[in-house]
Amino acid sequence: MLVLRKGQFEEIVHHARKALPNEACGLLAGQLADDKRVVEKVYLLTNVDNSPVHFSMDPKEQFHAIKDIRSNGWVLLGNFHSHPESPSRPSDEDKRLAFDPVASYLILSLMHQDHPVLKSFRIQDREVSEEKIVFA
């Protein structure tokens, strides 16, 4: 289960809308507490691909985010990206590029602009299982 504050959700949505028509991306950091993954900070990163169907995170921004995560004693919980015109489910490319079986992979669909849909997934060997998101 992933615990996300409403303000963090709004931050992700705002970042994704600003990136349109391209995909937006970022990292999630926080704490592990029993079966909960509690998000403490959302890192809004640049999609260097500038593409509506791909994303690659800016390596320098990733490096600075990881340094900040470590300095705060948090762990990297996962990442997020947006799907500007498709549902919030992993694409074949998303599955192929999901190398960390313990990471949470969040996908925000902006298919319906006034109703963004955020879902979280765990992906291992291209097998996908949805992870519950609890909004705190």
From TrEMBL:
Residues 2-127 form the MPN domain. Gene3D superfamilies: Cytidine Deaminase, domain 2. Pfam families: Prok-JAB. The keyword GTP-binding does not apply. CDD domains: MPN_like. GO terms for molecular function: metalloexopeptidase activity; zinc ion binding. PROSITE patterns: MPN. It comes from the Bacteria. The lineage of its organism: Bacteria, Bacillati, Bacillota, Clostridia, Eubacteriales. It comes from Formimonas warabiya. This is MPN domain-containing protein. Keywords: Hydrolase, Metal-binding, Metalloprotease, Protease, Zinc. One of its GO terms (biological process) is proteolysis.
